[in-house]
Design a protein that fits this description.
Elements: H1 15-20, H2 22-40, H3 45-53, H4 68-93, H5 100-126, H6 144-154, H7 160-184, H8 191-210, H9 215-232, H10 237-246, H11 261-285, H12 296-301, H13 304-328, H14 342-352, H15 356-366, H16 371-401, H17 410-414
């Protein structure tokens, strides 16, 4: 059985096509998170915690004390990061990031949109006296599935330039988030294991570039590289990104159709990512009791880590994006698309404040070993992302009124 097969043109209503829709993916992610949040705040919480904390260690492979929750964040989420790697490769080779002039402003906005949330978080935590500055990166990410899903539902009438800007910004956000995880949240580095992982990833890249795409060849190589990366001390999901980046984004000269391996694999694995990996991760990451801390809900809501993360997403993210665009848009290399204006940039910034998936992961990595701070960080991500989503809906509707253009078709809305 081949891993990559040409896509039939008439399967747009199949399960795979529906799972590839940003709307469906975002809905599943939201439902999984909502169910987990409810379970964690009802009498069913002990059962939820027991499942999440159940140990699935593999001592024979050197994997000690690995709970189901950790398998979700360290293992299952690697599928999502593999899709991110494929998306990055496609964007750099054939997409918006290929043209420096088109990509310059969204890329700069992504950098500003990461710096300001980190500064907001640092300011809140530093003035509180709480020893939690190492969580500065928690509010820096944008959840591409949620953001594009909301745009597909509530911003259909906006110009395509709006979606392109958001997609480019979110993809760059993912890339920078991966760099942050690799540099700042890597435990003791084991160079031998890292070298072994890179060798296997290179072998995987050789296979896909030669057109050797059998599932029995590529999946074992991917699993081996993940295991070696896990043992190296680098977060294992980085293996997924690197594997995705090795896949060719141009059609193979010996193939009988014009779809590249990267597009084919992204189409196949994005359905698995949105239909399985992201909901599973969200289910085990978003189950946080509201009454975390001795003082209950009000104590939790006023905790500096929660406030820093929430304000970073809700205030820092849109402020960073807006001020960056405002400062650079007059420069030749940083021109804003003619179909967009500063009001659209405000809407983009608010939408980018939805920082669910990667922010939850960074929160877990930043405070691993301190369950209380992990809970506060996760609550901050949940509250901040939900608030950003709720604010973005009327803002998108208002922006639609000033853009009487042809809306995105359902096919366009389903594109990554």
């Amino acid at each position: 059985m081949a891993l990559l097969t040409p896509r039939p043109p008439d399967d747009r209503f199949s399960l795979k096509e529906r799972l590839n829709s940003r709307k469906v993916g975002g809905t599943l992610l939201l439902l999984a998170a909502a169910v987990a949040f409810v379970l964690a705040n009802t009498p069913l919480e002990p059962y939820y915690s027991a499942v999440k904390g159940f140990d699935l260690a593999l001592p024979a492979l050197g994997i000690e004390h690995m709970s189901i929750g950790h398998w979700a964040s360290d293992g299952v989420l690697a599928i999502f990061f593999f899709v991110v790697g494929l998306e990055l490769k496609r964007e750099f080779v054939t997409g918006q990031l290929r043209d420096p002039r088109k990509a310059a402003l969204p890329v700069a906005a992504a950098v500003g949109g990461m710096a300001f949330p980190a500064l907001v978080y640092t300011a809140v935590v530093a003035t509180s006296g709480v020893d939690a500055l190492h969580g500065w990166a928690v509010p820096v990410a944008t959840d591409i599935a949620f953001a594009l899903g909301l745009l597909a539902v509530f911003g259909k009438g906006l110009p395509s330039a709006f979606r392109v800007f958001l997609l480019t910004l979110a993809v760059m956000d993912d890339l920078l988030g991966i760099v942050v995880i690799a540099i700042f949240y890597t435990s003791a580095l084991e160079l031998v294991w890292l070298a072994a992982a890179l060798v296997v990833i290179a072998l995987y890249g050789l296979c896909v570039n030669r057109g050797w795409n059998a599932i029995y060849l590529l999946v074992p190589l991917a699993l081996i590289s993940w295991y070696f990366m896990l043992r190296s001390g680098v977060h294992a999901t980085i293996a997924g990104v690197l594997l995705g980046l090795t896949v060719p984004a141009l059609p193979h000269r010996h193939r009988d159709h014009e779809i590249s391996f990267a597009e084919d694999m992204e189409h196949d694995w994005n359905a698995i990512s949105q239909g399985f990996a992201l909901p599973v991760f969200a289910f085990f990451a978003a189950g946080v009791p509201i009454g975390a801390g001795d003082g209950g809900f009000l104590d939790a809501l006023s905790h500096p880590v929660l406030l820093g993360v929430m304000l970073g997403l809700l205030v820092g993210k849109p402020l960073g994006i807006f001020l960056t665009v405002l400062a650079l848009r007059r420069l030749p290399m940083f021109e804003l698309d003619d179909n967009l204006n500063l009001k659209d940039v405000v809407a983009l910034g608010i939408l980018a404040g939805i920082g669910f998936t990667v922010s939850l992961l960074i929160g877990e990595l930043a405070f691993r070993g301190d369950a209380g701070l992990v809970d506060y960080a996760h609550l901050g991500v949940i509250f901040g992302s939900v608030a950003a989503a709720l604010v973005s809906i009327p803002v998108l509707r208002l922006r639609e009124r000033e853009h009487p253009l042809v809306p995105l078709s359902d096919d366009e809305a389903m594109l990554p």
